[in-house]
Amino acid sequence: MTLVQTIPKHNWAYRRIALPVLALLRRGASLQRLAWSLAAGILIGINPILGSTTVLCLALAFIFRLNIAASQLTNHLAYPLQLILVIPFIRLGSRVFHTAPMPLDAKELIHAAREAPLALIRQLWLWERHALILWAILATILTPILALALTPILRKLLVRVQHHQYPLIPNA
Questions:
Q1: Tell me: the pLDDT tens digits for 62-118?
Q2: How many C-beta neighbours within 10 Å does residue 44 have?
Q3: What is the Cα–Cα distance from 5 to 81, expressed in whole angstroms?
Q4: What is the SS3 assignment for 5?
Q5: Quick check: 70 and 37 in contact, CB under 8 A?
Q6: How do residues 107-155 score in pLDDT, each as one tens digit?
């Protein structure tokens, strides 16, 4: 007679978020540095310049000696949030800097692209620049707050890792 050990099946969030963070904790990453890395990755991941997050995250992780794996993990997990927040950042930038609001109608944008493409490109960069300034202010304020909030959570995970009590999610 053979004993069959049932291996618990974990959900996507556990496999893609919790296990990599647990692996980093098992490798001895410091709590504070890991918290800062996760916070920086999240906030860099929502910047309004699409396609810039990976390079920016790598650069800041290198400059501030953060954990690259942790910052990239949260950076890539924040991508859906980045897509959701691009338009609100641009709209808020238009209000704060008193510029014309970006038209969300595809016909208006296509018409502007056909009539004056260079003017549209300049206007798009203006909206993006204003959105980026607002994001930078927000990220500067929220990164330390998020890092401080993540530290106790990581401390609890570290205790579990040290006692081999990995947070298992039972089968539903």
A1: 999 888 888 898 999 999 999 999 989 999 998 999 988 887 777 887 888 888 889
A2: 27
A3: 39
A4: coil
A5: yes
A6: 887 888 888 889 888 888 898 999 999 999 999 999 999 999 999 988 8
Read off the tokens for 171: 């089968």
The angle at the Cα of 104, spanning 42 to 142, to the nearest 5 degrees, equals 20
Residues 89, 131: Cα–Cα separation, whole Å: 5
DSSP per-residue letters across 9-34: P--HHIIIIIHHHHHHHHTT--HHHH
Residue-by-residue DSSP string for 86-112:
HHHHHHHHHHHTT-PPPP--HHHHHHH
Select from 141, 127, 139 the least CA-distant residue to 46. 139
The DSSP symbol for 84 reads H
Q: Which helix (H) or strand (E) holds 149?
A: helix 117-162
C-alpha dihedral over 57, 59, 63, 68, to 10 degrees? 50
Backbone angles phi, psi at 143, to 5 degrees: -60, -50
Instruction: Check the CA dihedral 135-138-140-144 and report its sign.
Output: negative
DSSP 6: P
Q: Please check whether residue 43 is in contact with residue 63, taking contact to mean a CB–CB distance below 8 angstroms.
A: no
**How many other C-beta atoms can be found within 10 angstroms of the C-beta atom of residue 15?**
12
